[in-house]
Design brief:
Elements (H helix, E strand, L loop, with lengths): L1 H24 L7 H18 L6 H23 L18 H28 L9 H32 L13 H30 L6 H13 L5 H15 L9 H29 L5 H5 L5 H11 L4 H7 L7 H7 L11 H6 L21 H5 L5 H25 L4 H16 L8 H22 L4
């Protein structure tokens, strides 16, 4: 009864938020008010779909990324005069919001339909299995636990340190003097490889010792990996660990005092603040010609940076609004986008076609390669077909959720690893659109990783 009451209160509170956003922006929305109502309603149902426990990590993260961009940021654009479309040539004097809203509705409906289909398949055709590790491996791990942890931490530090020293892989920076195989290894490691391997260690340690201390390794890895590539995504990558760990520990059985929860939240927020501050400082010195006054003020401006990032840095809505106004959309145009090649200091396909106001700064360093990604939805709408967007998004969700389930099964039920893979897939497609054929390399790396996990699992698995 208590649980039902809490569920009702949560449902009522969240529906109230969506209703208030609708009422606040009713007059601000330029276009069909009926479409705007449908948009707000479908957004609410997507949110309810996303928070269901049986959702894959790919669904969970993708749906929330969609909501943060297409619902949250869009509502901010409507309500606040100082928040505008900053990454495209969108102009309200040319057309209203309706074309973009139709595509968003199609996208959200595709997500909801895909989740229902996936749930039906799982409930009717897939049975949950329980896996156990063999006694030899358990004894081996218990005996060498300290050495294994120490060696792995040492390896992490080696990867981070060598990447920083030799400047191999960073967000936005290019080093063409690195041997391709080395570059691929570091990009794999720093995008999701280190996190995947760390999640395996956390999973094994938690199952054997029934303690939660190993989870701290996830915080450690996430913080320094993101900082080492100048990324501001610590909180998101950490949440992939957290979601998996909560499912592993069974959320309903966890019991924490409010004081303990408060301390944990405070600790994470402090680490998040430090990650934003450190990354901003590194970016200011590595991306641009040194500006000492700006660097010295950065600590005091970190709070402002966090607020700005939390509103404006969600990928998708700017590009979709801009693309929706283009008169040259067609499948031929869509296919031409796949021919894009990576060129340093050359405008990307999206910038060249949809962002005429963009220009490089004279203070940027020569190896800084700034790109603006439209995101998967705007990229698919290059075709000009709402139905194509709907079908492709639906298939993509089913396909990526299936990949995540493969990793879950191959890793003996490692739900933490499944969340890491689901998050990596989600981030890949949310930022999709720049040199799209490079996604082949990403899927090839997933295949190699899966093969490694299958071999490793066959070694530690208890024979039936």
């Amino acid at each position: 009864m208590f649980i039902q009451e809490k569920s009702f209160n949560f449902f009522f509170f969240t529906s109230l938020i969506f209703l208030v956003s609708y009422l606040l922006n009713f007059n601000n929305y330029i276009g069909s008010k009926f479409l705007f109502f449908i948009f707000q309603s479908v957004s609410f149902f997507l949110f309810i779909t996303a928070i269901k426990k049986n959702k894959s990590a790919f669904e969970f993260f993708t749906y929330f990324f969609f909501l943060l961009s297409f619902w949250f940021k869009f509502n901010c654009i409507l309500y606040f005069e100082n928040i505008k479309v900053s990454e495209g040539d969108f102009d309200l004097t040319i057309s209203n919001y309706d074309n973009a809203i139709i595509i968003i509705i199609c996208t959200f409906m595709a997500c909801i339909c895909a989740s229902f289909i996936k749930e039906f398949i799982i409930n009717n055709f897939i049975k949950e299995k329980k896996y156990e590790m063999n006694n030899f491996f358990i004894r081996f791990y218990k005996y060498y636990r300290v050495i294994i942890f120490s060696s792995w931490i040492g390896f992490l530090i080696l990867v981070w340190g060598s990447n920083h020293y030799y400047k191999i892989y960073f967000k936005g920076l290019v080093n063409e003097g690195i041997f391709p195989a080395v570059k691929y290894f570091y990009s794999w490691s720093l995008v999701y490889g280190l996190a995947a391997l760390t999640s395996i260690l956390i999973y094994i340690d938690t199952l054997i010792f029934k303690k939660k201390i190993a989870f701290l390794l996830g915080i450690f890895e996430s913080f320094f990996t993101q900082m080492s590539i100048y990324s501001r995504s610590f909180l998101l990558s950490f949440f992939a660990y957290l979601r998996g760990f909560l499912f592993l520990s069974n959320i309903k059985k966890l019991r924490f005092s409010k004081f303990t929860v408060g301390k944990l939240v405070f600790l994470i927020l402090i680490i998040f603040f430090l990650s934003i501050y450190s990354t901003a400082k590194l970016r200011s010195t590595q991306f641009y010609e040194t500006d000492k006054p700006r660097v010295s003020k950065m600590f005091s401006s970190t709070f402002t940076d966090i607020i700005s990032l939390s509103i404006t840095r969600w990928v998708g809505i700017d590009a979709l609004l801009t693309v929706s106004q283009n008169k040259n959309l067609s499948f031929n145009f869509f296919l031409s986008a796949w021919q894009e090649e990576k060129k340093i200091k050359k405008k990307s396909f999206y910038i060249d076609n949809f962002f005429s106001r963009f220009d490089y700064s004279e203070f940027e360093k020569k190896n800084l390669n700034i790109v603006i990604t439209p995101g998967i939805v705007a990229f698919l709408y290059y075709s000009g077909s709402a139905m194509f967007v709907f079908i492709t998004i639906l298939c993509l969700i089913l396909f990526c959720s299936a990949i995540e389930m493969l990793f879950l099964s191959a890793s003996l039920g490692n739900i933490i690893l499944a969340n890491i893979i689901g998050y990596a897939l989600s981030v890949r497609f949310i930022h999709f659109g720049y040199v799209p054929l490079n996604t082949i390399n990403f899927f090839f790396s997933l295949l190699v990783t899966l093969i490694f996990i299958i071999i490793f699992s066959s070694i530690i698995k208890k024979n039936d």
